[in-house]
């Protein structure tokens, strides 16, 4: 498990024996986002100093510094073959990086606000921005192919279903919009959160959407319709959510630097990880976690 923090560190844990492995002290003034390679050999950290830094997770050394953005890096994705990285920044641009040459390959301009999230769909890139739009880019043609303008406030997160047929975006307008990617149309709009939706994920089976919000709650939506259940409310704002590959657990990060692990189907919280010293005590009796990451 790898995490980043505003204290400029990247922390790694071994969840098989519940031990802290290492802290990489970056040469930046704060790490804002991170992407892990498919082979788990390296990670890329996006920083407040407008750089992307590549770290070897075997040696814990910095492999490269990618420069080009003019402001804070907000989001990063790595392609399935680990050959390209795609980053979004406060400078309103999306950039594609060649990870073999450690060089900038392309730049996409069109958004008029900071880029808040990116998803990769074959040779398409889906981006969301504080300009209230969702854009689909053709990376081969280097063009903006379609713009969704249905959100009424900043768009904060984006995800694509495993079957690649749907996308879901969360917004400061408190809603989630589900998009049909084959028709470029809005399939449905989900309302219920009382504040901005910061994280959204499809379940691996595709029948559910899990969302988290600044309103301190996590919701589960069934079949992309307004039928939902509130999984839990918390004392701090919720920032992001991830669904494990076996479709059983939701990993939720909170503004207070805690990570919550939930069995979202059974509505049961399995663990809370709140710091280096507490991890072993908090999850040592949860052996089922060891094979999920």
From TrEMBL:
Keywords: Repeat, WD repeat. WD repeats lie at residues 1-23, 24-59, 66-107, 108-138, 148-189, 190-222, 231-272. The keyword Repeat applies. CDD domains: WD40. It comes from the Eukaryota. Pfam families: WD40 (PF00400). PANTHER family: F-BOX AND WD REPEAT DOMAIN CONTAINING 7 (PTHR19848:SF8), WD40 REPEAT PROTEIN (PTHR19848). This is Uncharacterized protein.
